Amino acid sequence: MSDPLINRRRLLGLGLGAGGALVLSACGGGGGGPKAGATAPATAAPTSYTGPDVSLSFWNGFTGGDGPVMKKLIDRFIGEHPNIKVAMNVYKWEDYYKKVPAAVSAGQGPDLGIMHVDSVATNAARGVVLPLDDLAKSLSLTEADFSPPVWQAGVFKESRYAIPLDVHPLGMFYNKTVMKKADLDPEKPPQTAEEYMSALAALKKAGIEGHWATPFAFTGTFQFQSLMYQFGGQMFTDDAMAVKFAEEPGVQALTWLVDLVKQGYSPKNVAQDADFIALQNGRAAFNWNGIWCINTLNEIDELEWGVAPLPQIGAKRAAWAGSHQFVVFKQRTDDPNKLAAAKVFINWISQQSLEWAKGGQVPARKVIRDGAEFKALKEQAAIGSQIDDLFFAPSVPGIQDPGPILDAAVNQAILLRKAPKEALAEAAAKADKILEQNRKKYGA
């Protein structure tokens, strides 16, 4: 993921995807291979590769600080597996999701890659990615090795198409120096609704707008989604036939954000990324943002900051999160050696996800998250403690497509141009039509 101040994590998606749904129009199409279920799974993968020399093409969108981390891991892998060469091609995520289906359709696709969890079902339905049940079985991977939401998110039509690498949730970043100005304890960030509103009131009294409510997807829509789940709502019906974000929990969530502006806890008309910049330059105390901000803040000399789980504003804890997951791409001609080598690579990288965590991620594998070395990564561990409170969208093709509709509703409400209930109701009507169109498009 690249610097959030450059492209604001558009790789994670702009809104509706409760697990980082990607706001991308349907791409790829005819000739891209058989539909999901029509391709026989690749042969089971050993934990080591003893076949002839192979070269693997590995595509992803790690254009930021995480790119060099992955490159170092690949170099280590090649050093330990001299018969497997891995060439990493990196694209902006918005370009990646256009290039991959087209390349697969033309018979020139990469061997393996990374996908955000909300795009897996779409690409499985298009026949772009291969089932990986055999890999999970041969490595004895189960839900217990990860976390239930992350593990289940990679399943489409009862087949597994993705192996989790990480999760990247929202957390609450806080400026300790600003908290001190309002006589708040910088070592005890607020974690309840009462504590949070009390802190904002103390900051306001000190002339500080403590939480800048951003009207943009990064991270206003993500904050909205987190609050909606905290208030007991959800993005979709369980069968993904309709959206639910316009119901009372959604209205409560968006109203809470709008009231930050109306009550003077936030300035009006916050610009893109201005909330994160305000945290850095001492104009805001709190910023609900993604784990990817850790390394950015670490690079700022003399900035006193910390990070904690999102405060519990509603009846339960919840936080938006995305997840990078490994996939293997469909080829016109299967190469058993490449398939076996690709799966060895996926397993090896997954086992090294402590190193990946240092790039600003939470390891998907439970044994690594529970280990002392990960817990020693203070900031990552703080955000990672929310692992059981994360939520992901249903594994349905095109589930990301209504995203811009919700983004617009959040934007209009926080800019005080529409009432939250009105904005969400209008968005829901449009989003339901998109879901209906997708059912026809994908034959659901």
Walk me through what this model shows.
It is a single chain. The protein is of the alpha+beta class and 444 residues long. The protein folds into 2 domains: 4-168 and 322-391, D-Maltodextrin-Binding Protein, domain 2; 170-318 and 399-442, D-Maltodextrin-Binding Protein, domain 2, CATH 3.40.190.10. 41% of the residues lie in helices and 13% in strands. The protein contains 19 helices and 13 strands. Strand 4 (155-156) and strand 5 form a beta hairpin. Helix 9 packs across helix 10 (248-262). The chain is globular, with a radius of gyration of 22 Å. Mean pLDDT is 89; it is low at 1-45.
In short:
The protein has helices at residues 4-7, 66-80, 93-105, 120-125, 133-138, 148-152, 176-181, 193-205, 217-230, 248-262, 274-280, 293-298, 336-351, 353-357, 366-369, 372-375, 378-384, 403-414, 420-442; strands at 54-60, 84-90, 112-116, 155-156, 159-160, 163-164, 166-175, 286-290, 305-308, 319-322, 324-328, 362-363, 390-391. The protein is an alpha+beta fold. It folds into 2 domains: 4-168 and 322-391, D-Maltodextrin-Binding Protein, domain 2; 170-318 and 399-442, 3-Layer(aba) Sandwich (D-Maltodextrin-Binding Protein, domain 2).
